[in-house]
Write a structure and sequence with these properties.
16 strands, alpha/beta, two-stranded parallel sheet, elongated, 10-stranded mixed β-sheet, single chain, 26 helices, 41% helix, 723 residues
Length: 723
């Protein structure tokens, strides 16, 4: 056997081992070629796909929104979203829709109330819709306009004027868009160079540098919405504002925002609104009267005082200077109209009543957030301005010399000019200054500030405007800004009841004062002495008599109170039973019922002459109302003001009415009240005076003072200002 035949041949393996580097190099080269081939193939596929995708879609994927620089704009229609508690936004939406329709464009007006019955979106609907549309990738075509929340910064003197100016710009911009252009020239071109075109070219130039990942947008688009509230500033938990949000995700985002808002409100209640207080104190408060507002009010005859007050000469003051008769306050309460100063320490109001003769040129608000002038300065300048306006009647034909001299001394002050006087933080000091000057005070409030009514010091006569008797009609007529306006309204009437003289409570049977009586009974038997066995021997009538005495001694009012009803035909004249219930709630001394005064056409109100009741209709309403309130009767009438006075029977003594006021006696009583630190009180009966026969309801004079001469205007123009 040959041993060499059994030996293994390893020469091939040795050869491979020796040439292994060449083998590795070949494999690597082959794999590299395969990778290059794959890269080239995929790049070609990607390029072919990009060619098939529109340019707008490419920009949307790379830059976050669609570029329209080189695309033609097509306006398919306009959608108008509005939300309103006062009705103004609805009116504006209707006007805007009519303007858009004139351009032959389809328009849809959408009321967010239908989709948000709880009013979660209404308060800041403009900001919210602007924000949501921007998050969805929309482009703003012009600056967003603001109304109520920015009224004190009005550039044109009123919300309506601001809206008209904004609408003109919007329609102009819309016309440009309909022509296929993105933006119109803003009119600020200099030296033949169009700034808007320069911006467009700059944006296109900057937009070409996609490697930076940046894209230049219009200044208006950089800030899609303003946010002053803290709940909108915490965006770290939400999607970035630079990203586009799917419409399906918008609901989840808003639910999250609402949840955070509720948690924020709860936290604020626990901390006593500390942050807001610090913020308000730190920030400088602005003046209520802006230059534009000052110009608008001055044209209407106002003499403005400081930064938030005003005075104006009432038309009845002018009338009585000429001997042509006084206002209804002269007939009902015996004031001298030519010596009455109509003023207000606050031009701002919390309502936007449809019958307001100021056409809503004054600011609106629910709290005092402006600079505040001192009451001494306000009163001093008010009297000076009033006297200067009286001086202008010197030598005017028909002006009686003795009344002109008397008119230079102010004896009465009607705090009913415009706005809400009780909003002024120093209203009590202002009233005290009036009384120190021997000037009587007639203060009117719109029943939206119950706490301020409770804290109010005695006035000569306190009015509360009761413009409607149901929640729906009050919202329609007064258009209040408060969301809880109805509860505030009811609480204000209850606060008024606490100021009524209780000595008029009937002694026999249960009346509308039963709730107060029962409270007094409860207070009586809380005393340990009364809880003795002898108390058990007291009969119910004796206990009621004892409670009656408590009410008279401890709850005596210091002023006369008045409900002021303004009748608007077809709006609030069919609510008699509801009015009667409100009377039982506030127990006013008097009820003034007056037909609404038409102040001319206004975009802020839909009121027309058809809503003005005839005097006979007002009389019929008053008769029907008195039948439902047995403690009251019709006392006086002022036909040429279309007004009647319903008075409580306590002012009818020995079948004679005592609705007039003894103003000298009131000044004595209020002085004693101030000197005693408020311990020496008085009631409405302590300063009443006998009403003359000519002022009574049913008299031939119909409320016109026979000392004066009735004047009939020949022309149709009429000064509707007055208290």
């Amino acid at each position: 056997m040959d041993p060499s035949s059994d030996t293994w041949d390893f020469s091939p393996l040795i050869s491979l081992w020796i040439n292994r580097y060449y083998i590795y190099l070949g494999f690597a080269f082959g794999i590299g070629l395969w990778i290059c081939f794959q890269i080239v193939t995929r790049k070609q596929d990607k390029n072919s796909q990009e060619k098939s995708i529109p340019k707008a879609a490419q920009d949307l994927m790379t830059n976050g929104y669609s570029s329209l620089h080189k695309k033609e704009v097509f306006v398919s229609g306009v959608k108008i979203f509005y939300g309103s508690q006062t009705g103004t936004a609805k009116e504006f939406a209707t006007i805007l829709a009519e303007a858009v329709t004139s351009l032959y464009l389809p328009v849809a007006v959408i009321n967010l109330k239908e989709y948000d019955p709880d009013d979660n979106l209404v308060e800041e609907v403009g900001k919210n819709v602007d924000k949501w549309l921007w998050m969805l990738g929309a482009h703003r075509v012009m600056t967003r306009g603001e109304g109520d929340c920015n009224v004190v910064k009005s550039k044109h003197g009123s919300i309506e004027a601001d809206f008209r100016a904004w609408k003109t710009k919007f329609i102009s911009q819309l016309q440009v868009l309909c022509k296929g252009e993105k933006k119109s020239c803003d009119g600020s071109c200099k030296k033949g160079k169009c700034e808007s075109n320069q911006r467009s070219s700059e944006e296109m130039e900057l937009g070409s540098h996609t490697q930076d990942g940046l894209h230049q947008r219009d200044p208006e688009e950089e800030e899609p919405f303003e946010s002053s509230s803290e709940e909108e500033s915490g965006t770290e938990d939400h999607q970035s504002l630079t990203s586009v949000v799917d419409v399906e995700d918008l609901g989840n985002i808003m639910n999250h925002v609402k949840k955070e808002k509720r948690e924020k409100e709860q936290q604020e209640e626990k901390t006593g609104l500390f942050r807001n207080t610090v913020k308000n104190e730190a920030s400088e408060r602005r003046a209520m009267i802006t230059p534009a507002l000052r110009e608008a009010l001055t044209k209407q005859g106002y003499q403005l005082i400081g930064s938030h007050s005003g005075v104006k000469l009432c038309r009845w003051t002018k009338s009585m200077l000429r001997g042509r008769g006084g206002c209804y306050k002269h007939t009902f309460y015996g004031i001298e109209s030519h010596r009455c100063m109509e003023t207000t320490p606050s031009l701002a109001c919390a309502n936007k009543c449809v019958f307001c003769w100021r056409h809503h040129t004054n600011p609106v608000g629910t709290e005092w957030r402006w600079k505040m002038d001192q009451p001494e300065v306000i009163l001093k300048e008010a009297i000076e301005n009033h006297q200067n306006m009286i001086k202008q009647f010197k030598g005017v034909p028909g002006v009686k010399e003795e009344r002109f001299k008397e008119g230079m001394t102010v004896k009465h002050c009607a705090l009913s000019l415009v706005g809400e006087p009780i909003m002024y933080p120093e209203i009590n000091r202002f009233l005290k200054l009036l009384h120190e000057c021997k000037i009587s005070s007639f203060l009117v409030t719109n029943a939206q500030f119950p706490v301020e009514i409770r804290n109010l010091k005695p006035v000569t006569q306190l009015y509360v405007s009761v413009d409607a008797s149901t929640k729906d009609s009050l919202k329609k007529i007064d258009r209040p800004l408060f969301k809880d306006f109805w509860q505030r309204f009811l609480d204000s009437l209850k606060a008024l009841a606490a100021k009524v003289s209780r000595c008029s409570i009937p002694r026999n049977g249960y009346t509308t004062y039963d709730i107060t009586i029962e409270l007094a009974l409860k207070m009586t038997f809380q005393n340990s002495d009364v809880q003795s066995n002898t108390a058990k021997e007291h009969t119910p009538n004796k206990r009621r008599a004892h409670a009656d005495e408590i009410l008279r001694e401890e709850y005596r009012g210091q002023q006369r109170t008045v409900y002021r009803l303004t009748l608007v035909k077809a709006w609030n004249v069919d609510e008699l039973q509801a009015y009667a219930e409100l009377v039982s709630l506030g127990h006013p001394d008097f009820i003034e019922v007056k037909g609404v005064t038409y102040c001319g056409e206004s975009s802020a109100s839909s009121l027309t002459m058809a809503n003005v009741p005839w005097h006979e209709e007002v009389v019929r309403f008053v008769r029907e109302l008195v039948d439902l309130i047995p403690d009251y009767e019709i006392a006086c009438e002022h036909e040429h003001s279309n007004c009647l006075l319903i008075a409580h029977k306590k002012f009818k003594i020995d079948r004679e009415w005592w609705t007039w006021i003894d103003y000298n006696r009131f000044q004595e009583l209020i002085q004693e009240y101030e000197d005693s630190g408020g311990s020496k009180t008085f009631s409405a009966e302590d300063y009443m005076a006998k009403t003359p026969h000519w002022a009574l309801f049913g008299a031939n004079e119909r409320g016109f003072d026979p000392k004066d001469t009735r004047f009939q205007r020949k022309n149709k123009s009429k000064d509707i200002s007055g208290c």
